[in-house]
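B., you asked whether I could sanity-check this one before it goes into the benchmark set. Here's the sequence:
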Amino acid sequence: IITTLPNTTPGEIPNLVHTLLKLEPNNEERTKASQIIITMLPNTNPWEISRLVNTLSTLEPNNEERTKACQAIITTLPNTNPREVSRLISALSKLKLGEMERAEVCRTIITTLSKTNPNRIPDLIHTLLKLEPNKEERTKARQAIITTLPNTNPSRIPDLIHTLLKLEPNNEERTKARQAIITTLPNTNPWEVYDLINALSTLKPNNEEQVKARHSILTALPEASPETFYSLVGLLRRLTPVHDWLAALGIDRAG
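And here's what the prediction gave me:
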């Protein structure tokens, strides 16, 4: 069985190892089987790596073998589709990542953030948070998101802001994110203006920024569909001080 393993497809490995274990292999045989599986990891599809790791675990690998398996999986991360990264992280977690491996995986994810399609950033951050990133790693991740905002399709910005908030941005970072949104507003469709200003509101805009947001709403109203028009007016009301809103309606608050 062990001689057969190297020439077997990853999908068939679990069944072979299951059969091997029924024969009660000794330590040397378990080691050889483990080494073969570890060698296969870098060239295996992400969805099959998880099964191989499960199979490896049944062979009771020692710490050195677990570390080698972790390293083999980590080498695949830079070239893995961001959608598949979470599968690899799940596989790594089964191998009990050490601090060095955890930090290396975090670095890889953070590096990927600035190179990937913005649509995939939320999934990458979700995966990063599972690794309990430290303060420095969170900061780098936030910087990567903020840098991405100006070049992101307006329809995707709200998702990025929601993701950014999960990383607990500081005041300076919130300001940069708000500026990116405000810069985007003038060239945005009315229905996107609504989503962008909702996202802006979660970042606690100051008075000046609220004025700019209200101006963007007023500019968008003439081209808005009836449904979007209604939503924008509601949003405008939320952003407008009560006395200004009453004055716009011709109502004298004092009277």
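One thing to flag: The chain has a mean pLDDT of 88. Otherwise nothing jumped out at me.
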